[in-house]
Amino acid sequence: MLGSYFLFIVAKESPRRLDLYNLKTEKVCKTIYMDMRILGVKHNPKRLLITTEDSIHLFDLESFQTLQKFPIYNLRIADLSQDEASVVAYPSSTQGEIRVFDAINLKHLKPLRIHQSSIARFSLSPDGSLLASASKKGTVIRVADVQKGEILYSFCRSLVKEAQIYSLVFSQDKEFLSSSSETGTLHLFHLARKRSKFLGNVIPSLEPLDRPKSVASCKLETCEEDTKIAFKTIDGELQVLVLSTNGKLEIFRVVREGVETRFHRISKTALFEQILEL
């Protein structure tokens, strides 16, 4: 099990090499060489997941032995849950379907048939119990129960405007889901404790037309940049951090007033003060 003082590094000059860097000793303590260029790296206390151009590789993080290798089809992304439950999600060869793998017991779970069209983005909740996904249209975001293989929520991001979804992230307690897209809009969806009983294993085309919309949204300053989202609780307040590929960081506080929820943009001065406190 690795501590927080370890860092995984893939240098631009050596895209097939992954270095495990110890921040305390300031030395590389482990190096993994892949056959193809590394596109993504995910890890938790027990497992390491490396996505390359042609396959997905699962490693034991203590011995660094290869445990499993998954094929890649059209979409070169994969996800690994943050906690020790170690759930892996990766695209299936079947359109609109995601495969799920128990990385502790090394067995596949029930495939998640979520969309009718090709999937463009997906993300696991921190404990691996939920999976959020969006198709290439990006108009609808669905959340499925990983163990049961059922659709729990179907949110409307936009009624007509299609968009590429850049990021999908759950809050730590799974109460909220946030998304960013090429439209430059940040959305916040609320996962109600009492969900509708209508969905279950329903065929997506038969879902109700009144899909719930986001409970909060705002325009980002970096509209044309790819963005990544993270939830962070600071001084007891839930905040959404948005980082763009140009290095710009925007932070929004989630404000709840009665039944209403909204984003409050933290000013650059307040942001600087928070960074100093951290």
From TrEMBL:
Keywords: Autophagy, Repeat, WD repeat
Gene3D superfamilies named among the record's database cross-references: YVTN repeat-like/Quinoprotein amine dehydrogenase
A Pfam cross-reference name: PROPPIN
GO BP term, example: autophagy
Any GO CC annotation of this UniProt entry: cytoplasm
Family per record: Belongs to the WD repeat PROPPIN family.
Protein name per the record: Anaphase-promoting complex subunit 4 WD40 domain-containing protein
